[in-house]
Amino acid sequence: MEESTITVRIPSDLKDYVEAACEVRGMTLTGFIRDVLREHAAPRARTYELPGFTQQFAQFREETAGKEILLLVIDSAGHHLVFQGTADENQSSPALVTLRPETTVLARDIVGWYSAPQQGLINKLAIALQRFGWVPAMGPAIPRRTRGS
Q: Is it true that the peptide bond before 101 is cis, omega within 30 degrees of 0?
C-alpha cells in the first residue's frame, strides 16, 4: 500500500491530550490518527428491530387476540395504510397478522398499532389518520390465492 504524508495543524493542548492518550494505549500518534480516520471513513451499518417483530408488538398481540385493532402499515411500495379488523391469532403466525374479515398483513411492514378501550374510538382514529396521509386499506395486504393460481 502506497503511503502519503499529511500535515495538520491542531491546537497544542489537543496535541498534548492526544499524545497522552496514545501513551496510555501504547500507540504512536500516527497509529492513533490512522485508526480514527479508518473508523470515521467506514460506512455505518444501521441495525434495528422492525416494529412488527418487537416484544412490545408480541405483547400487544397477546392482549388483543379476538379484539378489534388498528394497524399502521408502510408497504414495500411506500404506501401508508391503515388496517382495521378483529385480531385472529388462530390464523396468524409470527410473520403474519390476520384480521377478520379477510385481511393478512406482513409483520415486517407494521409500524404502529392501537386497540381502543371503548367501541368507536378506532374508527375515529382511522378518520383522523387520513388527514395525515394514511389511507384506509381495502381488502387483504397479501392477495389470497384462488384456485388455479
A: yes
140 to each of 8, 42, 123, how far by Cα in Å? 61, 42, 18
SS3 content of the chain, % helix, strand, coil (to 5): 35, 20, 45
- The single-letter code of the amino acid at 148 is G
The pTM assigned to this predicted structure is 0.61
- Sorted by where each starts, the structural domains of the chain and their CATH numbers stand as 12-41 (no CATH), 51-136 (2.30.30)
Choose the weakest-confidence range: 8-17, 46-55, 104-113: 46-55
Q: Any idea which residue has 396521509 for its cell?
A: 133
